[in-house]
Design brief:
about 5% strand, mainly alpha, 3 strands, about 50% helix
Length: about 210
C-alpha cells in the first residue's frame, strides 16, 4: 500500500489540503497498512476493514479517533476507485462500529481548589474559571457573552445556547466578584454590546483561545 498512500497524499497536497490534514491522513493510513501487514490494495476486502475497526474498539480508541480513521479510509479508497486502482471499494456501505459513550470527566473539589490557587492567574482567567466551575456554562456560550448579558445585581447571566435558545444562569458570589474585578482591570472602554472576555489582541476570545 505504500505507493498508493504516497500517491494519495500527493493528490491531497495538489488539492490544497493543509499539512495538518495530510499528516493525519498519513498516520491513519499507515496504521491501517501495518494492521494488514502491507497487504496489496487490490486484495483488501470489506472483512479486512471490519477487522481493523474491530481492533480499534478492542484497543480502546475513542469515538472521535475512530470516526477520523473511518473518514480517512473512505476518502482513500474513493480516490483509488476513481483512479481505477481498485475494482471494488471495501469501504462502500460500511457502517461505523458502535462505541460506548464515555461519561464526561470532571474536576474533583481538591483539583478545582488547586487550579484556583495557581500562581500568576490573571483577573480574566480567574473570572473564566469561576464562571465555568460555578455555573456549568458551555465554552461556546462563555465566549459568546457580551457585557450586557451579565446582571451583577441579580447575580445572573443570560446565555444563548444551542438552537439560539436563551436561558438565565445564576452566578455564584465568587464568580460575580471575579467578573467585577476583571472588568475593573480592563484597560479599554466598553459598552453593553462589548465582548465580555477578550483575547490578547483586544478582540473577542474564541472557543479555541479559551481551550
Amino acid at each position: 500500500m505504500k505507493d498508493e498512500i504516497t500517491e494519495f497524499l500527493n493528490h491531497l497536497q495538489v488539492e490544497g489540503a493543509s499539512p495538518h490534514t495530510i499528516r493525519n491522513y498519513n498516520i491513519d493510513l499507515q496504521e491501517f497498512a501495518d494492521f494488514l501487514k502491507q497487504k496489496q490494495v487490490s486484495s483488501i476486502s470489506k472483512r479486512d476493514t471490519r477487522d481493523f475497526f474491530g481492533s480499534l474498539m478492542r484497543w480502546g480508541y475513542d469515538r472521535a479517533s475512530v470516526s477520523r480513521k473511518l473518514s480517512a479510509l473512505r476518502t482513500f479508497f474513493k480516490f483509488l476507485k476513481s483512479r481505477n486502482m481498485i475494482t471494488q471499494n471495501p469501504m462502500l456501505n460500511l457502517s461505523a462500529p458502535k462505541l460506548a459513550h464515555k461519561l464526561p470527566s470532571f474536576l474533583t473539589q481538591s483539583s478545582a481548589k488547586a487550579l484556583f490557587e495557581l500562581q500568576g492567574l490573571s483577573a480574566r482567567d480567574k473570572a473564566i474559571l469561576e464562571l465555568l466551575y460555578g455555573s456549568g456554562i458551555r465554552a461556546a456560550e462563555l465566549t459568546g457573552l457580551n457585557i450586557g448579558r451579565v446582571n451583577f445585581i441579580d447575580e445572573t447571566i443570560k446565555v444563548l445556547g444551542k438552537g439560539s435558545k436563551e436561558r438565565t444562569i445564576p452566578l455564584t458570589r465568587k464568580a460575580n466578584a471575579a467578573l467585577k474585578e476583571y472588568l475593573n482591570e480592563r484597560a479599554i472602554a466598553y459598552n453593553q454590546e462589548s465582548p465580555l472576555f477578550l483575547n490578547k489582541d483586544k478582540g473577542r476570545l474564541s472557543t479555541r483561545g479559551l481551550q
